[in-house]
Amino acid sequence: MSVLKVHINEAGYKTNEIVIKDIKFEIKPGELVGLLGPNGAGKSTTIKGLIGTLEYINGTIEFDQDERRYAYIPEQPVFYDDLTMWEHFQFTASVCGMTDSEMEKRVGELLKIFRLGEVKHHLPRTFSKGMQQKLMIILAFLVRPSLYIIDEPFVGLDPRAIRDFLKLLEAERENGASVLMSTHVLDTAERICDRFLLIAYGEMIANGDMKELQEMLNLPDAALFDCFEQLLEDNDHD
Ligand SMILES: Nc1ncnc2c1ncn2[C@@H]1O[C@H](COP(=O)(O)OP(=O)(O)OP(=O)(O)O)[C@@H](O)[C@H]1O
Fold first, then answer.
1. Do 151 and 225 lie in a common domain?
2. Side-chain half-sphere of 108: how many Cα atoms within 13 Å?
3. Most ligand 1 atoms within 8 A of CB, residue of 14, 15, 19, 23 to mutate
4. What is the 13 CA–ligand 1 centroid distance (Å)?
5. What is the per-residue pLDDT across 81-98, written as a single tens digit (0 to 9) for each?
6. How many folded domains does the chain comprise?
7. Boundaries of each ABC transporter domain copy (predicted)?
């Protein structure tokens, strides 16, 4: 059983401009999969392909029908300019069929964790980038989906927020949720991910856990960073 099955033959922002191709992978229940790759490799484009916001996609994306919905935490926060943070919670809760009291209980916990209680009736456009990112995180954790799709969560969050975010993610995984997370922070990825997808030049060049990558590269005991460097060197297009 998979929570998500991805089979992208080719995709891009316009029909005649292919940005990613031959991206095939699955995510199993409870798995945390790291989506890695250098700048411009195609990680965000792959994620946009999954959530259906790319103009051109040839392939299939299958979400497990029986599972609860997914939540997407974008790299750049997106919110409604004229809604306060609290109104964002109310709107999200109503779309997801949550009662006000369920929403208030969960949001109360999350606002406390991320120390945003004092600004709950403010407009997110007046927030710092990190505060806006925390709002995106709170909205995702409010929904409690079976799959979290997260685009580079670590840039912009302060160290305490990163720790609290990882704790929440771990708790969700213990409840069976799966995670696909793109990141450049390889030491954290190595510590928390079950498996890694490496994308370079718009193509998937590796898919495996730490041990599989080390064996494939014949680099026993190598860190993820070293495996990553070696894979990029082996697949260098220059
Ligand atoms: N909105 C867009 N329209 C057209 N091309 C785009 C758009 N966004 C990204 N691209 C192009 O798609 C390619 C892959 O970019 P993408 O954002 O997927 O990379 P990434 O792996 O997420 O990189 P980073 O680590 O820098 O965030 C790049 O060549 C980029 O210029």
1. yes
2. 6
3. 19
4. 9
5. 999 999 999 999 999 899
6. 2
7. 3-226
